[in-house]
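Exercise 3.2. Students should predict the tertiary structure of the chain below and write it as structure tokens, then compare their answer with the key that follows.

Predict this chain's 3D structure.
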Amino acid sequence: MSLVKKTKLVFWIAKTGSAKYWMRLLNDLKTRGVEDIFIFSIDNLKNFSEAIKAIYFNADKRV
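Answer key:
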């Protein structure tokens, strides 16, 4: 059994924080192999919260 840990780092830059932007970002993470994100710490970003519910619905969101 291998205990290899993979780390993913993605840096995105955008002019807006629209729902479409956050959905693309989270879908990109998912296609890169990120299966679970347990906690999102967000600063009252409504569109981001909605995208989290759609893509990583089991994640805990903390504002």
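Discussion points: Residues 36-63 form one domain. The mean pLDDT is 80.
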